[in-house]
């Protein structure tokens, strides 16, 4: 078997919170940046459904969910992905939770397919009329091996906002999205007017009184 090829797509998607599910386009018949077209009608997904695991960025050490359905349309393939739930004993960041939240916020919208070509052709006159003059090659039959959540289409501004909101820490953002600029992420700040009671013989010095009031504002001190 030849080495698998990969194609990346920005998806029109819908997110279901109750199911932890994302329904998204994973391929289209549009000409991609390589000048190539994947015909959705030519997809053979039979082998894929023997183990329909969905990965992050084609990293087979990072499974994030499973595909439960693929719907074939004339011009695209739609897949339903269920993101894995966090195990009760898991400590630290749970990648499927992070990715689901980023889909919910519209930060990432991309999927990428890994496939092996079965049949293909140089574009005919009809292909050029159908797909446009930039088409260089048409994959008419191909075998789907896997598909992955793709990090590259991430909206950098939205990603920075997600970090600033605490949805994602900067370290994880940089690990998952190598092009992310942590220094550009906005910092959240809030100004609060603190009124510190004045007494002739204060029980606390000024710094201690301010700290005391800050704790009260945060709800960490009730006295």
Q: In percent terms, what proportion of residues is strand?
A: 25-35%
Number of helices: 5
Number of domains: 2
Low-confidence stretches: none
Cα(first) to Cα(last) distance is 71 Å
Task: Give me the secondary-structure category.
Answer: alpha/beta
**General form:** elongated
Rg computed from alpha carbons, rounded to a whole number of angstroms: 25 Å
Biggest sheet features: 10 strands, mixed
Provide the helix percentage.
10-25%
Q: Secondary-structure element sequence?
A: EEEEEEEEHEHEHHH
Calculate the mean pLDDT score and round it. Answer: 82
The total of beta strands comes to 10
Task: Give a short synopsis of this structure.
With 223 residues, the chain is an alpha/beta fold. It has helices at 95-104, 125-131, 156-164, 170-176, 206-217, and strands at residues 5-10, 13-16, 21-28, 36-38, 43-44, 53-56, 59-72, 76-83, 110-121, 137-149.
């Amino acid at each position: 078997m030849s080495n698998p090829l990969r194609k990346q797509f920005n998806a029109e998607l819908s997110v279901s919170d109750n199911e932890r599910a994302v329904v998204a386009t994973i391929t289209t018949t549009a000409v991609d940046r390589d000048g190539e077209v994947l015909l959705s009608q030519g997809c053979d997904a039979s082998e894929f459904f023997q183990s329909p695991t969905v990965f992050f960025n084609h990293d087979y050490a990072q499974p994030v969910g499973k595909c439960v359905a693929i719907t074939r349309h004339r011009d695209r393939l739609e897949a339903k992905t269920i993101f894995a739930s966090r195990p009760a004993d898991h400590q630290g960041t749970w990648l499927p939770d992070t990715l689901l939240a980023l889909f919910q916020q519209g930060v990432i919208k991309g999927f990428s397919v890994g496939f092996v070509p079965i049949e293909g052709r140089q574009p005919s006159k009809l292909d050029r009329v159908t797909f446009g003059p930039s088409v260089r090659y048409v994959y008419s039959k191909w075998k789907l091996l896997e598909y992955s959540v793709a990090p590259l289409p991430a909206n950098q501004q939205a990603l920075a906002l997600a970090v600033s909101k605490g949805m994602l820490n900067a370290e994880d953002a940089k690990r998952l999205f190598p092009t992310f600029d942590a220094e550009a992420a906005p910092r959240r700040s809030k100004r609060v007017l603190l009124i510190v009671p004045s007494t002739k013989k204060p029980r606390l010095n000024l710094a201690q009184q301010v700290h005391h009031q800050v704790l009260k504002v945060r709800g960490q001190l009730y006295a």
